[in-house]
C-alpha cells in the first residue's frame, strides 16, 4: 500500500513539475493588452476602433462593411444613432465612417438629418410618393415631411427630380410645394363647377370648400379659370379669402328684380328688408341700382319721389284747408316715426313751407289752424285770468317773482325809499311773503317754485310735454301759470277743427300753444290786476282823505270843547266829569276811526265794523294786538289815554299816533277863523236839533248848551247829567227870569223822568210841552250875554 | 494584517486535512499527496493569473525542498535560490524558508538566509494547523517578503541584476 502511495507521490511530484514548467506559457493580462493596443494605435502602427464596451476592436474597413450591411438590412435608410447602438461602436466613429462612405460615390449613400440613406431608398420613396399622389390626386411636400420625417427641401428636391420620371403629376405654378395630377385638377374643377352652378344664394367660400373638399388656393385658381371661360355666373363679394361670399348671378338678378319691383310698386325701400335679402350696404345698393332716381334716405328706409310727392301734396292740402293732418296713415306702415318726421321736415323745407308745424313727429298742423285755435282760446284766457286774479294766485306768484328778483336789493330799497307807494308795496310784500294772513300758503308756493327751478334747468331746451307739474311761475318765461295744458286740452276737445284728433296731437298742440296763450293770459291777468289795483289805490286814497277830514274835525271839536270845559275852573268836579265824558265820546270816536283805517290797511282777520263809533274798547284792544308791532307801539298809548282823565295826554298820544311814522295823517293846525266857523256851525246844528226836538229833556239839554255857548262864546260838549251844573254856572250871566224859567223847566224834567205815576207824568208832559216853545224862544234869542265879556276876559 | 490580494490568493489554495509530519510514515505520504495537490493548484492559479514566481521540487521523501523564486522589476528578472526543510514537528511548526544568496544582505533575515516572517504569520499559521501546507507558507510567507524586501535591496544596490545566459 505504501508503495502504491509513494508511486502516487512520485506521480504528483512529476505532475507538479510539469505544471510548473508547462503552464508557464505566456499570458497577457487584459490591462496590459489594452495598454499595448493603445500604444500601438498611438504609434499609428495599428488602425483599429474599439467598441463602446471596450471589449472588442474593429478595423475601419470592417466597420464600413458592417454599416453597409446594416443599411441594406434596414432597406437603405438608417439612423446613425441606431447604427452606433446595433454595431456597439461609438457614434463619432460611425459618423466618421459614414462621412467616408458618402465621400465615395460608388456606395450611393448620403446623410440627411443624422440618417444614412441609400439611393435605393430614394427610389422606393419616389415610388411611394407617386403612389400617394396618384391615390390622392394632390400632395403637399409639407405633408410628406411629416409623413416620412425628412426635411422639406430634400423632399422637394427629390420630388422635383423624379417628376415625370417616377412621379407622374404636375407642380402647382403658384406654390412649388404642391403637386397634383391632371385628373385631380379636373375632378376639382368639376366639383366646383357643379357646386357653383347649383348654388342659389350667397354662400361663404368656406362652406363651398368644405363640401367640395377642395383647397382654398386651388379653388381660387379654378374659379378664375371657370369664370374666364364663362362656365359659371356669379361674383365673389366681400373680403378676400375664406370669408368671401360667392353670389350667384341668378341671385343678384333676383335681388335687384325684387328691389326694382318693390320700389316700383311702393315707392320706397326698407333697409331692413334689403338686409334680409342679404344686401349689407342698403343705401349704397339703392344708390347703385337707382342712380337716376331722386331718393330720400331716411333712418330706416329710402323713399322715392312718388311717395315724397304724395306727402307734399297732403301737406299742402292740409295747409290750404287749414286742418291738421297725420302723415302716418299715408306713409307705409314700415316707416318709423323718425322716418316720418324726417320726410315731413324735408317736404316742408323743400317747399319752403313755413306755414305749418310738425307735431308728434308726423303730424302737420298749419299755423293758420294754430292761430285760429289760439283765438278760440281767448275767452278761456280771460276767464282764467280773472280766476287767477280772484284767487290771488297771480298776485302772489308775481310778488314772489319780484321778491326773488330783488332779493339782494330788497333791504337797500327799503332803507332809501321812504315814499308812500313803496311803503305800500313793502307792506303788501310783507303780507304775501311774510307772516301775514296766508302764511302757510305763501310757504307752499315758495317750495313749489324751488322745485320748478331745478326742473326748468334740466328741461330748459325741451319745450314739449311741459304739462307734467304745473307750477305758478315758470322760470324761463317769467310767466305766471295762469292757464294749464289741461285747460287748453279741455277746450280743444270741444273744437270742431280738432275732431278725431289723437290725444298726443292735442297734448302737443296744447304744449305748443301754451307759451303764447300763457303770455296772453298773463297779460290779461296783469291788466285786470292793474285796473283793480288802480281802483283800490283810488279808494284807499279817498278813505285816507276822509279819515283825515274826519279826524281833523273831531280833533278841532275836541279842542273847541276843551276851551268850554276850561270855563268850569271853579267847579273841578264838573270839569273832570266833562273831560271824561268827552274822552269817552269824541276820543273813542277818533280812536275808532284810526283803528278802522289801520285795520283796513293791514287786512287783519278780525272783522272791523264799518261804523267807527261801534268799536268797543274790547274790540279795539283785540285789533291792536293783531297790528304790526310798530303801529301797536304808537296806538297802545292812545288806547290807554282814553281811559285816563287828561285831555292833554290824549292829544299828545293821538298826535304821535298820527305822525308820519305811524298812521300818516296830516292834521290841520288850529285856525281862529275855522274855529269861529266851527262855533257857528256847532250852534247851528244845536239849534237845528232843538227845532226838530220834541223831547223836553233833550230840548232842555240843547238849550242849556246853547246858552252856555252864548254866555261864554265857547261850545261845550256835555251829557244830560251836566245840565244842572251848567245852569248853576250860567246863573250869574243869565237874566233872573230866564234862569228861573230854565230852573223850573229843569225841575219839571226831573220830575217827569223820575215819576212813575201815569197821570202825573201826563200832566208834567203837557206842562213841559207848553213850556217847550218858551224854551226854544230863549235858546234862539239868547245870542250874546253879558257874561261873554267876562268869559273872554278870563280866557285872555 | 495580511493584505487583500494575499488573502484572495490564500483562499484559492486548497486546504489540507491530514495532520502528519515526516515521521508519521503512511500518514506523511497522505500528507505529502495533499501538499502536492495543493501546490499544483496554487501554481496553476498563479499561472492563470500570470503571476508565476517560483519553481520548487523536493527530495524523494518530501522532507527537503529547493528551487528558485524570482521578482520582476524594471523589466529585469531577479532570481534567487530558495530552500527549506520540513521540520519534524510539521505541520504544527511552520517550515523556515531560506534564501541563502541574500544571507547577510538584509536585516530581515536570520542566520543561514532564513527570512524573518511577519508577526502575523505565526499566529495565523498556528490557528490553521493542519489546514495550511507548503503552498500556504509560500503564499503567506515568502511572497509578501519578496514583494517588500527585494525592491528595497535593489534600491540599496545590495542586489544586482546578473545576466543569465
UniProtKB/TrEMBL annotation, chain A:
Domain E3 UFM1-protein ligase-like C-terminal: 675-779
GO annotations of cellular component type: endoplasmic reticulum membrane
Biological-process GO terms, alphabetical: protein K69-linked ufmylation; regulation of proteasomal ubiquitin-dependent protein catabolic process; response to endoplasmic reticulum stress
Pfam families (alphabetical): E3_UFM1_ligase, UFL1, UFL1_C, WHD_UFL1_5th
InterPro entries associated with the record: Ufl1, Ufl1-like_C, Ufl1_dom, Ufl1_N
Residue ranges of domain E3 UFM1-protein ligase 1-like N-terminal in the record: 8-285
Region (Disordered): 406-473
Regions of compositional bias (Basic and acidic residues) in chain numbering: 417-428
GO terms, molecular function: UFM1 ligase activity
Every E3 UFM1-protein ligase 1-like domain range: 544-670
Keywords attached to this entry: Transferase, Ubl conjugation pathway
Family: Belongs to the UFL1 family.
The protein's role, per its UniProt record: E3 UFM1-protein ligase that mediates ufmylation of target proteins.
PANTHER family membership: E3 UFM1-PROTEIN LIGASE 1
Annotated protein name in UniProt: E3 UFM1-protein ligase 1 homolog
Automatic annotation (TrEMBL), chain B:
Protein name, entry field: Ubiquitin-fold modifier-conjugating enzyme 1
An example Gene Ontology CC term for this record: cytoplasm
Membrane-spanning segments: none
Domain of life: Eukaryota
Catalytic-site annotation from UniProt: 116
Gene Ontology annotations of biological process type: protein K69-linked ufmylation
Function recorded in the entry: E2-like enzyme which forms an intermediate with UFM1 via a thioester linkage.
Keywords, alphabetical: Ubl conjugation pathway
Protein's organism: Cloeon dipterum
Family: Belongs to the ubiquitin-conjugating enzyme family. UFC1 subfamily.
